[in-house]
């Protein structure tokens, strides 16, 4: 299964509760933090919801 790297590039301040919880569920807490996930439909949907706060690349 393909892997993706998700990096938090913007703050969650002044964002909705759902977006903050989505970032937390992805494992992103601090700006600049990078996590790796399998490219499942669930993860890709979560990334899509916060794409303005993160950057994504294939691993």
From TrEMBL:
Pfam families: Ribosomal_L30 (PF00327)
SUPFAM superfamilies, sorted: Ribosomal protein L30p/L7e
Gene Ontology CC terms, in alphabetical order: ribosome
Keyword Ribonucleoprotein: yes
Domain Large ribosomal subunit protein uL30-like ferredoxin-like fold: 4-54
Record keywords: Ribonucleoprotein, Ribosomal protein
Matches recorded under Gene3D superfamilies: Ribosomal protein L30, ferredoxin-like fold domain (3.30.1390.20)
Metal-binding in keyword set: no
Superkingdom of origin organism: Bacteria
Listed HAMAP family: Ribosomal_uL30_B
Family indicated by similarity: Belongs to the universal ribosomal protein uL30 family.
Subunit structure of this chain's protein: Part of the 50S ribosomal subunit.
Protein name: Large ribosomal subunit protein uL30
Originating species: Winogradskyella alexanderae
